[in-house]
Amino acid sequence: MQIVIVGCGNVGRSLIEQLSKENHNITVIEEDSDVIQNVVNNYDVMGIVGNGASYSILKDAGIESADLMIAVTDSDEINLLCCLIARKTGHCHTIARVRNPVYSREIDFIKEELGLSMVINPEEACANEAARLLKFPSANKIDTFAKGRAELIRLTVSDDSKLCDKSVKDIAQELKLPVLIGIVRRGDEVFIPNGSFIIRAKDEISVIGTPRKMLAFFKKNNMPTVGVKSTIIVGGGQTCYYLAQQLIAFGIDVKIFESNADRCDELASLLPEALIIHADGTDRAELLEEGLVGAESFVVLTGVDEENIMLSLYTATVSKAKRIIRVHRAGYNELIGTLDVGSVLNPRNITADKIVQYVRGMTNSMGSQQLESLYKMDDDKVEALEFIIPAGSPVIGIPLHELPLKKGTLIACINHHGEITLPTGQSQIQEGDSVIIITTCTGFDEIEDILADR
Predict the structure, then answer these.
(1) What is the pTM of this model?
(2) What is the CATH number of the domain that holds 62?
(3) Helices 238-249 + 261-270 axis angle, to 10
(4) Final residue of a domain: which of 310, 345, 380?
(5) CA atoms within 13 A on the CB side of 161
(6) Where in the numbering of this chain does the RCK N-terminal domain appear (predicted)?
(7) 164-193 per-position pLDDT tens digit
């Protein structure tokens, strides 16, 4: 596809990195000439220096023949204007990053009036993920499929876990639950395990099943299944606002540390049910005084990655709180993998993954949108995807053991008319089913891509 990307910050660069690997023709617009030079030198893209809201610049970028325009600058207004010009000029699909809560409250109107294909709010997306984790604190990450009927939950195997030093097959026989261990991360290595794979302490495993069966899985393994009743949030920015809104609606007590007095006044007005504390949330004495030791959960959302990481590590020494931190820099991924920092939110990855999902689902060789969900994991080493099976697909009606799957590809579960099943070798996929795939391959945009001869 012909894709124009306006803005080359964290999200823009992540999109360039991912989409340039998937055989798209990409033109990047950015006002900083040094940034453009760096991108052009490192990726197979064309770069244009200029303002993406300029008609002449967009025309130079080929907007008239483009299939998609993605606007991810730091300005909501510029992003929306870029999309409006692109729609009027090129009639292409448009995606805008919009962060201001004022616009978020009017997003349906904006989408309809400007003809936007998609609007993504990184702060709100992060808050949504954090809220899910606080409702299920044993999980490191929760991804949903089949409109919430199936969940892929990531957790760390503790030293005293019943799962330790047992094969995947033995675990399944002991638990007698329709759940599947689909991914194992051990240090820097990632595995899609077979039945003989042995689970070890400190492995990070991803388990898939229905919400009810996943709840039973956690109970049988003596893991907490009740959501938190209180939380401490450090950093009162937009992500904090979106998260606190949701938590208060759930009946969770919220305490927010914010060092800026004016922002404290804003939050007090916006969130009257929350306790707003005007103090430096990175000050350990302040945290201890406000009950960190007995806190059920602790969410660190300052603008400094290093502070977030260090605060989480400190909290682990004084509290059993569920910990969630936000980290922007991709360069810290490898380091974080070696540290016990709790659950990690990366706005750049969350935003880019949702956009890549849309891009892959736009058009495929059969002319219909198949890709329903896409999650990238473990530094993009693994993808979990959900496909809707169209009529005429070559995977229909064939026992799964006869399908020649690509190496490192697993059919994790099948949703047939709302019923979620873990497939066996004799299972067959039918038209209209949604199928969840876990794979170490990349670039799948239709179900046929799982086949070895494709």
Answers:
(1) 0.87
(2) 3.40.50.720
(3) 30
(4) 345
(5) 24
(6) 1-120
(7) 999 999 999 999 999 999 999 998 899 999
